[in-house]
């Protein structure tokens, strides 16, 4: 049986809360998964960064849970060669 630390339990609870909110908003679940996956490479020993990312996640969750929030927009950076400006 796996034993999770207090911080790991908090992060898992945050993930579950985000996924519960994502049920009502299409496309949000993929974004949540990608953000958690991106931050999963933070070393367990870097507690300061983990706490910082965790607190940012809590703020974002509270924003999503507000009744006046209808949807979520995400800006992504394109790395396609065809969209880079020419240097002529």
Automatic annotation (TrEMBL):
Ranges for domain Complex 1 LYR protein: 9-62
Subcellular location per the Swiss-Prot or TrEMBL entry: Mitochondrion matrix
UniProt superkingdom: Eukaryota
GO BP: mitochondrial respiratory chain complex II assembly
Keywords from the named record: Chaperone, Mitochondrion
This protein's record includes keyword Chaperone: yes
One cellular component term from this protein's GO annotations in UniProt: mitochondrial matrix
Assigned protein family: Belongs to the complex I LYR family. SDHAF1 subfamily.
Protein name as it appears in the record: Complex 1 LYR protein domain-containing protein
Originating organism: Dreissena polymorpha
């Amino acid at each position: 049986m796996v034993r999770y630390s207090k911080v790991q339990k908090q992060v898992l609870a945050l993930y579950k809360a985000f996924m519960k909110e994502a049920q009502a908003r299409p496309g949000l679940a993929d974004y949540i998964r990608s953000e958690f996956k991106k931050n999963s490479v933070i070393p367990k020993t870097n507690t300061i960064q983990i706490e910082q990312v965790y607190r940012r996640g809590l703020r974002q969750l509270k924003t999503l849970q507000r009744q006046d929030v209808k949807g979520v927009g995400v800006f992504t950076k394109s790395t396609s060669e065809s969209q880079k400006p020419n240097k002529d």
